[in-house]
Amino acid sequence: MVDREVKGLLTDWLYEKVIAEVSLFIFLRLSAILCCAPGIISAQQYNNVVHPKPADFIVARDSIFVFGNFSDPATEVFVNGNQAITFPNQTFLAMIPVAPGSLAVHTLFQTPEESFSDSRQVFVPPYIFATPAETIAFDTTFFYPDRNISIKSGDRIAVIVKGTPGGNVYCSLDEETIFKLKEVNHRRRYRWRNTVFGFDNPWQLPRVKGVYVGFFTATDEHRGRAFSPFFTLITRDEQVRTFRGRGTIHVMKNSGANIKKVIQDVTIFKNSRNQTFLTALQKDVLVNDNGGYGDYSRVRLDKKQILWIPRRKLQTAIENLHVEEIPLSRLQINRATSDSATISIEFLSDSIVPFQIHQSTNLKSFILKFWHIQKMPAILRNDYIDPLFHKISGKMFAETGYQFNLNFTHKMVWGFDISAEGNKIITRFYKSPVPAFDRSKPLLGIKICLDPGHGPDDGAFGLTGINEKMITLPYAELLREMLESRGATVFLTRENESGPSLQQRKLFAEANGADLFISLHFNALPNGVNPLKVRGTSTYYYHPHSKPLALAVHRRMLRQSQLPDKGVHLKNLAVCRITSMPSILLEPAFIMQPFEETQILDMQFREAVCKGIAQGIEDFIAKYH
Ligand SMILES: [Zn+2]
Q1: Rounded to the nearest whole angstrom, what is the distance from the C-alpha of residue 510 to the centroid of ligand 1?
Q2: What value, to the nearest 5°, has the Cα angle with vertex 117 and ends 114 and 122?
Q3: What is the per-residue pLDDT across 292-327, written as a single tens digit (0 to 9) for each?
Q4: Element (H, E) at 32
Q5: DSSP collapsed to 3 states, 346-412
Q6: For residue 582, which of 342, 412, 414, 400 has the smallest C-alpha distance?
C-alpha cells in the first residue's frame, strides 16, 4: 500500500499532486482512526463510541459517521441531538454534518432508567475555500509550484495562485517574462481511498472562485536559469497585492542528455487502462534525467515512457563518466531452458539496461522491453523451444528500445518473474502445477497460501468493536480446513494476532512454493460515505494471470454471501502484485456496515463464504489446470 508512485506530466502536476496528497493523507488518517482498538467488550454494562476516536483528525467532505455499541437493548442513542439508528445487535450508527475546524461529538445513551453521555472533540482539517470577495489578498497556502521544480527547454508548466476573486493576476519570472493568469472556476477533484484495501472513488467538491492559472513554456534562452514566480494581484478597485511563491523553477542547462546513474534498484508497477507493467531499473543502470519535482526525478526511457523515481536513488554527479548519450548495448538471448515446472529465458546485454515486462490480458502472451539497445538481437533458436511455446518474435521500437513478443500455447501462463544479475536478465514462466486433474480430489497437489489480512495492525473496525485482524484469522482457519479436505496443502501467513509485513507475506508464499495466494480482508468506508448504502462483496487482483482466479472465486463467494455485488477490480495492492502465482484479495463484506458486520460474525455466513471461496478455487483449477 505504501509504495505510491508519482506520475503525470508537468502540466498535470497540480491535479495529480493534489489527488495523491489528499488520498494519501486520507488513507493515513483513516488507518489511524480505524486502527484504534476500543478494547474487548465485557459482558457488563457498557456504552461505547468506537468511531471517531477522541482528538482525532477527520478528513471528510460534509459528514462523518459515529458508531458504537451498548449493552441495554432498550437504549436509544442521540448524537449531537439527532437520534441515531440502532440495530438488533445493540449497535448504533449516526451520520453528522461536519465543517472544517474543531467539532464536538456528544453521544447520549438513553435507557428508560438512566442516561450516559460521551463527549469527544475531533478536528476536521480545512480543504480549499474561495478567498472571501471582500478581502484583498493572496491565499499563501495555495500556490504552485510549491517546491523546487526542474524542467527542460520545451516543457510547459502551470503556475497557479489563489486570491481575491474577480481581479487581474500577473506572474513575473524575470523582467522580460511576465504573463497574465486566467481566473478559472476551479473544482478540485478529490478522491477518497477505501480504508485499508479497496478502490478509489472520485469526489467532486464545490467550485472555488479566485484560482488563477497561467502557463510558462521554457525555451533555450531560459536554460541554466532559476526563476522564483512573483505574483501581482490587482483588484477591481485597483488595489494591489504581491506575493512571491516559495518554489523555484529551474530550467536545466543541458538540452541534450542529462545522464544519471541509478544507485539503488527501482521497481515500478504501473497500471493504465487496465494494463499492468513492471518496470525495473537495476543498480548501476544509466538513465536520462529529464527534470523533476520536489524529491522526484523524471526519467525518460523513450518518447512515451516516463518514470518518476525518488531523487535519492540517482547519483547526480558521475565521476569518470563524460558521455553525451547513454552508450547502447547489444542484446542477445543467452540461453533458454525448460523443465516440467518452468521455462527460463536468459538475456545478456553489454551493460545493464532498463527492462519491463507486461502480460497481455489474453493470458498467453508477454511483451518484454529493453531500452538502450543498439541492434537486432538473435532470436530464440528452434532447439530451445518448449511445447508450451508458440512463438517468439522481436522488433526495435522508439529508436533504442527492443521488444520481444512471447506467445504461449497454453490457455494461461500460471505465473512469471523477472530478475537481473548484473547485465544478465532472466525471465521465468511457470507452468500449471496440476499435471492431472482429478474431480474427486480437485485440489490435490495444489499449495495454497492463505493470508489473514492485518496483524499486528487492527485493520478496519465494526460497530460492535470487532476488527479485521480478529476476524480474518478464524475465516482463514475454516477455509484451510475446507481446502485441505479437497486435497490442497495450505499455509497461513499468520497463526495469531501478530503478522509479518506485506513484503514478507509475499516472500513467505514464494518460499513455501505456493501455487495460489489468497488474502482475506473485510471492507470499510471513509467518512462521508453512507455505510447503509455502499456495501457488498468485492474481489481484487492486479496482474492479468490473477484475473481468472479472481473471477472464479468472486462468482462463488458472491453467490454464498448473498450480498450486493461490488465487483471484481484491478487494483495496485502489494499482495496482489505477486507475479509468480495467481494472487487475489477478497473483501467478502463490509465490517463497518451494520447488517454485514452481523453477518460476518455469524457462523453460517462464515461457512457459506469459505465454502464459496473453496468452490471458486476449485472452478479455477478445473478450468485452467
Ligand atoms: Zn483489510
Answers
A1: 22
A2: 170
A3: 888 888 898 998 888 989 989 988 655 555 667 788
A4: helix 13-34
A5: EEEECCCCCEEEEECCCCCEEEEEECCEEECCCCCCHHHCCCCEEEEEEEEECCCEEEEEEEECCCC
A6: 414
CA distances from 18 to 21, 150, 178, 211 (A): 5, 19, 26, 14
Cα-to-centroid distance, 269 and ligand 1 (Å): 21
CA–CA distances in Å: residue 197 to residues 99, 450, 526, 538: 27, 17, 11, 11
pTM here is 0.80
Report the pLDDT value the prediction gives residue 276, as an integer from 0 to 100.
Answer: 87
The CA 55 to ligand 1 mean position distance, Å, reads 24
Output the CA 573–ligand 1 centroid distance in Å: 11
Strand order in the sheet with 85-87: 47-51, 63-70, 91-97, 85-87
CB contact at 8 A, 387 and 365? no
- For residue 151, the SS3 value is strand
- Helix, strand, or coil (residue 613): helix
CA pair distance 17, 124, nearest whole angstrom: 21
Rg, C-alpha atoms of the chain = 28
Phi, psi of 553 (to 5 degrees): -70, -40
